[in-house]
Amino acid sequence: MTLLDQLSESSTAMVEQFGIKYYWEVDGYKLCNKHLANWYERDRNCWATFVAQQFSSIEHNLSDRVLDIDRNYNLEYLQKLRHAHNNLHLLFSGGSDSITVFEQAVANNIVFDEVISLIIENIDLPCNQEIKYNAIPYINKYKKHYNKFTIENTSFDILSDYYSNPYQFFTMASATSQPMNIGRPFVSIERRNHVPGTCYIKCTDKPTLVHYKNSWYATFHDGSWGGCNSIPNLVYFWLEGDNIKSYIKDARIYRDNIKKEHIIGQSLRFFKADALDTLNTTIRTNPQHLDRHFKKTDGKTIDQKDAARFTDALYCGRYDLLTNYFTCLNEFYKVFPETKHNGFAEYNKAGKFAWFINIDTLELYTQNELIPNGFKV
Questions:
Q1: If pLDDT is split at 50, 70 and 90, which confidence band does 121 have?
Q2: What is the number of structural domains in the chain?
Q3: Coil vs helix vs strand at 87
Q4: Please, are residues 31 and 11 in contact by the beta-carbon 8 Å criterion?
Q5: What letter would DSSP give residue 67?
Q6: Do residues 25 and 19 touch, judged by C-beta distance below 8 A?
Q7: Per the domain annotation, does 10 fall within a domain?
Q8: Which CB contacts under 8 angstroms, 24+ apart, belong to 67-73?
Q9: Where are the beta strands (DSSP E) in the chain?
Q10: Of the four, 54, 97, 314, 340, which is 20 to 30 A from 357 by CA?
Q11: 375, 212 Cβ separation under 8 angstroms
């Protein structure tokens, strides 16, 4: 058995053990790592389908083709989660998405069992500034709305051990762009003792919109999947079938405001809000200190937060972590040597879509149904 097959078998076992909701399916394997799926496609000259386990649930919840723009779908879903779980945890970054969900709980007297903010090594390191200046001050204002607040620390020791596997770039449940983030704050959550009846809410789901052939679609592509997906009982707040109408509601509001600021012609265009985008406030609550909010990547360079984590590791003299990380990167280069010489921009452009939803008709499509041969303009 080749190394590729061994990694593919291990990935399949991880998907089935943790119930990972997004994965790539090919030749009977379920691959929870985008880069492993890309490697498999290249090696075997085949196509790996990007699968969303929530697809049937989304289809069911959109079957009535009705969206009430005045209905508070977020509140209904939050109440449902609270009722269904003995232990309801909110992953709180202090960013606009998690603030929006927390404010919904505050306004309606919903109490979380635990609110969790994730840091790397030391709260005073620059890479943790979003947590220090946005998350902690905000959460301290509303102590009656959670039973416990935890600052979960993923130390440099944990990260060094994590990257001691030279093939870690291909084994983690992740779809993050390259170069991979050296800081993996969710590792500490993954290593917890998870008990039945526990739910972790992740809030990173501002709608991605595509304007294509005079129609507007909300979509989810594998580049938005993130890197914390082996946490058991993880809920993507706006992407689950039971709250998909809130995702579409946000998409409509965002689309209507886009049309006010942009001339929309016949060309193919993608849109996604960021906390630093003024349109973000139409669907989310921005953090108080936007100057402490790291800028996202443009696909050609790494995020500012990732860069800060590299700098902090170097400043703290953690050459063991850096050595292990770059050993992993070197293994990646062996599989994709063109990225070593040409950079990651072209590699990161490649992506697949779990579904498309026409935000006006609420019709749901797979990638193969809507764009079997890619976008044709």
A1: very high
A2: 1
A3: strand
A4: yes
A5: -
A6: no
A7: no
A8: 67/245, 67/248, 67/249, 67/252, 67/362, 69/249, 69/252, 71/245, 71/249, 73/243, 73/245, 73/246, 73/249
A9: 22-26, 29-31, 49-52, 87-91, 114-120, 149-154, 198-202, 208-212, 215-221, 234-236, 269-272, 353-358, 364-365
A10: 97
A11: yes
For strands 114-120 and 149-154, give the pairing.
parallel
Structure tokens at 371: 């764009």
Chain segment 310-368, per-residue pLDDT in tens: 999 999 999 999 999 999 999 999 999 999 999 998 998 888 999 999 999 999 999 99
86 phi, psi to nearest 5 deg: -70, -35
Pair of tokens at residue 30:
């379920």
SS3 223: helix
Residue 23, helix vs strand vs coil: strand
Q: Token match 């593919």: residue?
A: 8
Whether residue 13 lies inside any domain: the answer is no
Bond preceding residue 179 cis, omega within 30 of 0: yes
Q: Is residue 124 part of a domain?
A: yes
pTM of the model as a whole? 0.92
Q: Residue 206: give the domain boundaries.
A: 63-370
Token representation of residue 227: 């890197």
pLDDT of 144? 92
C-alpha torsion 326→332→336→337, nearest 10: 40
Assess if residue 354 is contained within a domain: yes
Average pLDDT over the chain, rounded to an integer? 91
CB 280 within 8 A of CB 96: yes
C-alpha span between 275 and 227 (Å, rounded): 20
Asked if 174 contacts 33 with a C-beta cutoff of 8 angstroms, the reply is yes
